[in-house]
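RESIDUES AND SHAPES:
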Amino acid sequence: MSPPELVSAPRVTAVAAHAGVAGVDSGATIATLLTMTAAVRALQGEGGMASGARFAQLVDIEGQAARLLADALSCAAGIPAHGVAGWARLADGAREFYGALVEAHARLSGLAGVVDDAVDEALPALAGAAAQRVKWELLSCGAAHRHLWLWLGAAYLAAGERFGGAVEREYLRAIAYHSAAFDQIGRSALAAADLLVAQGLSRLQLRPLDLGDALYQVTPSSWEPPRRMLAAAGDYDGHFYFVARGAADMFAGLALQLARGQLPEAVATLSPEARLALPLACQHLLRQWGDAPPQRRFRRHLLDGRLAAVSGFAALRRQIEGGGVLPPAEWLMHDVSRGGIGALVPGEAAEAVEVGDLVGLRAADGDGWHLGIVRRKRFDGMAPRLGVETLSQKPRAVTANDGQQTFDALLCDPVRKGEAVRVLAPEATLQAGVTLFIHGEGAVHALKPLDATQGGRDFDLRVYQVL
């Protein structure tokens, strides 16, 4: 039996999807992924074909997919966020492809049932596909594969010292993706972060004992994904401990080189756009794998209720002014803390929001908008769950002028002489070193820009001092 014929891989174009950003034909990429997934599923059946022949075809298809997705990842920021050719559909397609590939290799290796002619080399192939499935689960905010960690752990235990350590390397890669919060990385930095994980693999460790420096605990014989270490663990049979200190030290050295304007040869293969995001990717991995990885600052309180939600600077400002035309989306509150809100986002509303987006939330029985930035987006059983960091509980709509142009803005803080105030404005509007004058509620205030700044898909956020 032969798999369906594959369509040709989409050609990387020189046409910019955004100004200065090379893109791929994302629609053709998605179509190719669908065809490849169908081919992999066809190869899962028996059909009279020898296991070795099926394995060879799977390896060939996987190679095509890896090249295809590497191109997409290298210019992910230039792919539209939504629509039939959008990033959301591409990430879903990649997740489904690697899920089918994991299942095919699990069958050929004998991990998913007894086979007469098991293929030994399917073990490292399964581990590699599983690592990529973990990555694309995070990037797509899709459902986790229920057998993945069990099969991956079984492959690790079965492989031992065979295959030149390839199975252990891919097991470490999967844990690295899981622990590195890839779902919190902006699309512009994904290619850089992916390369840094690959560069750091040789410095990651999986130990049978906890020496006090482990970040995660994993049990290869369990269905459960790795668990963050919140305290020193005892030594239990069957548990292994993920240590990333060596990789973190390497990233710290890289950060110093980048700050000096040096580009190490190991990362010189990145596209010009991805190189610009190297410092961001490096700092993200340092935060996740450093001596003091991120921990929740405020206690969460479970709370239900309905939330009106608006995303994007322009739509949010219209709502705050009272001139919103389109009705807000409806989210379901999940939890609250001093630092933000967790919400379940059903259906198409979830596809419209990405990590890093500016959003406004209002309780169903409330009359004020809370301003926040989406920091996390993960699938939570039935629907994506978003974590929103609060920026302001009482934002104000104002008009701003920098001496060259007048534009709409939002104030996140009260205006008090000598104190700091955060200002939101459309993307590429707030200039460094330029005094800003804001007009609102019958008064004019002069603001001196400070160094702290942040940007998103359609907004700038800068800190000023009130003069």
Q: What stands out?
A: Residues 396-466 form one domain. The chain has three domains: 1-179, 301-392, 396-466. Confidence is low (pLDDT under 50) at residues 1-22.
